[in-house]
Design a protein that fits this description.
heterodimer, A: mainly beta, six-stranded mixed sheet, 0% helix, B: mainly beta, seven-stranded mixed sheet, four-stranded antiparallel sheet, globular
Chain lengths: 107, 122
Amino acid sequence: DIQLTQSPSFLSASVGDRVTITCRASQGISSYLAWYQQKPGKAPKLLIYAASTLQSGVPSRFSGSRSGTEFTLTISSLQPEDFATYYCQQLNSYPMTFGQGTRLEIK
Amino acid sequence: EVQLVESGGGLVQPGGSLRLSCAASGFTFSDHYMDWVRQAPGKGLEWVGRTRNKANSHTTEYAASVKGRFTISRDDSKNSLLLQMNSLETEDTAVYYCGRGRYGDPRDIDFWGQGTLVTVSS
């Protein structure tokens, strides 16, 4: 199975900060990676698919990129509504694993 | 408007069975792959399995942790996704989400239901 390792697991930041979350795959997954945002008690929400394509309706401050087996989610200027947990998911092969999550909290 | 509404969760004893349903509306259900994803209390997301669309013969894939115990099926005539869970274990306690696979590759989950809680306990 493909393992996804997110870093950091926990991140404390302030409104207006630029933050980056990394997801490393244990083997090549091409660009078959998605990023989701989940708020407490709510279902996840798709932010980015195919590593760097912004889902319709998602603010442009969110962006994704890929370098080999390392993927990054960047939020250019944190807004209060962005404090949540973020997950990556690989869709290259079954089982379609998720990263362990990155919890983003207000400093 | 795309909607996915799960139902069927509840309390079940270890070794028991439960069937979850997901009612879909607002899109052409038969065109889409559909997934189940679960989340144990306070834990991360775990992909459970998938059923492909009609064009791909509704074939299924499962996580190793549920293979042989869980069965995913669908009824395109009723826009319904099902998860039959047998031989339930305490480790199966989680919120179960159904999700729509985005049309076209890669089939990430572009819409999610609100989830239904399954508690396995004696």
